[in-house]
Amino acid sequence: MLNVGIIGLGVGEQHIAGYLRHPACSVVAVCDIADKKRVMAQAKYPDVRVTADADEILTDPKIDVVSIASYDNYHYEHIVKGLSNGKHLFVEKPLCLHQHELEHIQALLQDRPHLKISSNLILRMSPRFRDLKCRIQKGELGTLYYIEADYHYGRIHKIHHGWRGSIPYYSVVLGGAVHMVDLLLWLTGDSVAEVAAVGTNIGSKGSCFKYNDTVVAILRCKSGMVAKVVANFPCVHPHFHALSVYGTKGSFINGTDHALLYTSHSAGTIPEVISTLYPGVHKGDLIYSFIEAILNDTEPEVSSNDVFRVMAVCFAIEQAARNGTVTSVCSVGEFNDGTHNTVWQADYRRGRKTGRA
Question: Backbone phi, then psi, for 28, in 5-degree steps?
Answer without folding.
Answer: -110, -15
